[in-house]
Amino acid sequence: MAGKLYHNLIGGEWMASKSGQTLQNINPADRSDIVGIFPASNAEDVALAVAAAKKAFATWRLVPAPKRAEILYKTGQLLAERKEQFAREMTREMGKVLAETRGDVQEAIDEAYYVAGEGRRLFGVTVPSELANKFAMSVRMPVGVIGMIAPWNFPMAIPSWKLFPALVAGNTCVIKPAEDTPLSTYNLVQTLIDAGLPPGVVNIVSGYGPEAGAPLVEHPDVRAISFTGSSAVGSHVAQRAAANFKPVSLEMGGKNAMIVMDDANLELALEGALWGAFGTTGQRCTATSRILLHESIAATFTQRLVARAEALSVGNGLDDGIEVGPQVNEQQIETSTRYCEIAVAEGAKLLTGGKRLIDGPYAKGTFFAPTVFGSVTPAMRIAREEVFGPVVSLIEFSTFEEAIEIANSIDYGLSTALYTKDINRAFTAIRDLEAGITYINAPTIGAEVHLPFGGVKQTGNGHREGLGALDFYTTWKSVYIDSSNTLQRAQIDNAE
């Protein structure tokens, strides 16, 4: 099936890339189905988009924040009306099952309504001055043009996390969607336009990282970068941006542990393990990729988990009854395959899966069997490195303290979970687990838009999506108003 031709959005106009090159957006459940043809942009396209955003910033920053927020609220309403259409198009381009893509669009709706409320809550602070007849306060100011690089696994939700708070704060944006899933970002931005967003406030430049992403990071008129992707690429982005003293918000990888204690509700933990490990085909930075099992329940839990994993229905996410969709592309299949080979070579026991599905309904897609490894030790690569596929490792432990140590022993620190009925252990885990998110009696996935989202160590650099995003998309200005009609010198005239 031939795909529709799309262009970049620059200054309110749809424009073909100056490169003359295009890329194909392909359905991972059926590689013969071309969802769309998108520009493979270059530095010239990026420069045009940044110039348009810079021009628009001059007027957008002067629009009162509550008025900016009204556009976001209207966007939420329109997204709700278009939810089913956008979800189906997202499943076609990304692969995850329809229930999940509906949730992806819903997250953008939630973000629109949440951030719209911030239009009347861009609070500064007032403080008493140390001098007489002097007023002191602080206000939030927009940063300017923001460059945004989005991932493919949540192709509408994550762009909404970036765009909406940046816009309500008065910034303008250039966003590069992931080359595997650009359509959902196009749908999101078109909805903003339909809600009344002025031309040039948001610009889209599609393409590959080296040709389009790198020029965006390095452009001198881009004042800040928001990046979601792998830790390796994030490190490169941070280093290039630092050369120009440019702030960067990084949300990167994870190797998330779910701890199941001997007193846990095992059925609840099993449900959480299946959803956390195989939801979105394991293609989440918060995926449950390690399950730490108390030795007394490990055998029972393992047997039941393997049986449940083998019963999962894998297929096209648009079909009824499908629980696990395809991986997004051939590269992800190769990664999952390679890590399964590494795990076996290091002594892990393959309990189920471990291979690409190629026969019958799987022949035209990029499907990988839900995979469970047992006899995994904390030192194995399968227990330490991010796979980003439907692959989960089971690790046994003897004591609660040992479980915490194993969970913390990796380079990442995004999400963690503990299943227990012991409230004391729960609060100890909340305190001691090195992660940006901790769930109690729930899996490692399921974040809500109004709480901070992000992690520590090689997962992030301290900034957050959700609550806290406005701290990145605004800069503080301190204001002093002296009505004394005399020169007053702080710390000098006030010394006695």
State the main characteristics:
7-stranded mixed sheet; Aldehyde Dehydrogenase, Chain A, domain 2; 24 strands; Aldehyde Dehydrogenase, Chain A, domain 1; 496 residues; 5-stranded parallel sheet; alpha/beta; 2 domains
Short description:
This protein has 2 domains: 4-252 and 460-478, Aldehyde Dehydrogenase, Chain A, domain 1, CATH 3.40.605; 256-440, Aldehyde Dehydrogenase, Chain A, domain 2 (3-Layer(aba) Sandwich), CATH 3.40.309.
What does this structure look like?
The chain is α/β, with parallel strands linked by helices. The protein has two domains: 4-252 and 460-478, Aldehyde Dehydrogenase, Chain A, domain 1, CATH 3.40.605; 256-440, 3-Layer(aba) Sandwich (Aldehyde Dehydrogenase, Chain A, domain 2), CATH 3.40.309.10. It is built from 14 helices and 24 strands. It has a seven-stranded mixed β-sheet with strand order 15-18-19-14-13-21-22, sandwiched between helices. Strands 10-9-8-11-12 form a five-stranded parallel β-sheet, with helices on both faces. β13 (256-260), α9 and β14 form a beta-alpha-beta unit.
Q: What is the class of the largest domain in the CATH system? A: Alpha Beta
CATH superfamily (homologous) name of the largest domain: Aldehyde Dehydrogenase, Chain A, domain 1
Query: How many distinct beta strands?
Result: 24
Specify the structural class: alpha/beta
Spatial shape: globular
Task: State the assembly state of the protein chains.
Answer: single chain
Given the structure, what is the number of helices? 14
Strand order, sheet with most strands: 15-18-19-14-13-21-22
Mean pLDDT: 97
Instruction: Report low-confidence residues grouped into runs of 5 or more.
Output: none
By CATH, the topology of the largest domain is Aldehyde Dehydrogenase, Chain A, domain 1
Helix content: 25-40%
